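Contributing new records

If you add data, match the layout below exactly. Sequence lines come first and carry their own label; structure lines follow with theirs. Keep one chain per record. Anything else will be rejected by the validation script.
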Amino acid sequence: MDTRTFLGVQQSHNPFRWSMEVTPGVSTTGGFLFGGSGLGAAISALEGTSGRQTIWATAQYLSYAKPGEILDIDVTLAVEGHQMTQARAVCHVGNREILTVNAALGDRPLEAAGQWERMPDVPTPDECGVRTHRHPIDGTINDRLEQRLAKGRDWETMDGTPGDGQTLMWARIPDVIEGVDAAALAVLGDFVPMGVGQALGVRGGGNSLDNTLRLVHLVPTEWVLLAIRVHAVERGFGHGLVHMSAEDGTLLATASQSCIVRFWKG
C-alpha cells in the first residue's frame, strides 16, 4: 500500500476537502492521534490537491483527536506559481481545530546540487536491537512501525543519568511498500519527544507542539535512519531535530520540533 492508504486519508467530491478516520492504528498508546500521522495526512492532502511535491511543511498542534473521531482536512492553495505552490491545511474534528499545516510545494530543475550532511556510521538494522515499549502497543502506530536502536537506551535502564543528546534509530513502515514519500517521512520524523527522554536519561518524553519537515531527496529505501539530536530542555520544553537518511546514506529529509516535556507516571 501507499502512505495515503496506510493513514486512511480519503478525498471527498470537493478536491479541497479530505478526511481521515482516527483509528488506534494512527494513534499513540495514550489514545490520541500521533502527531506524525496528522502531519502526514495533511501533507498527503496538500500534495493531492496541488499536484506538487512537498518542499517543506510545518504543523502547529493545537488539540487532540481520539480514535473514533473523523479528522477533516481543508486545503487552501494560497499562491500558485509556475514552479511552486504556497498552501495550508486546517485539520479539524467538527469545529475543534486539531492542527494547522503551512507548506510550500513544487520543483525547480537546477543542475547545482550537493549533500554536506553525512549519515552517522551505525550498524545495520539487522545488527540492532528492537526498541522496547513501556505499555502494550498492540494496534497502535508503534505496532505498525519497526524501530531498532543503533544508539540509545531501553526505558527499563533509564536511571536519571543524562545522555549526550543523540539517539540513532532505524525505522520503517512495513505496510508501505510503494516507497518512502513525504507523508511517510512525516510519520517517521516525529521522534524528538522520544529523544528528550533519552537525553535526560529519564522515563519520559513529551507532546509535540510543532513539527517542520524539510524534504531533500527521495530514493528507494526500506529502512530510514533517524539521527535524533536534542539541543536543549528548558522551562519545561524540549527542542531538537531529526535527520532522516536512506540506507545508502542519502539525506531524505530533516524534521525539527519543540515539545512539552512530560514524565511517565509510575
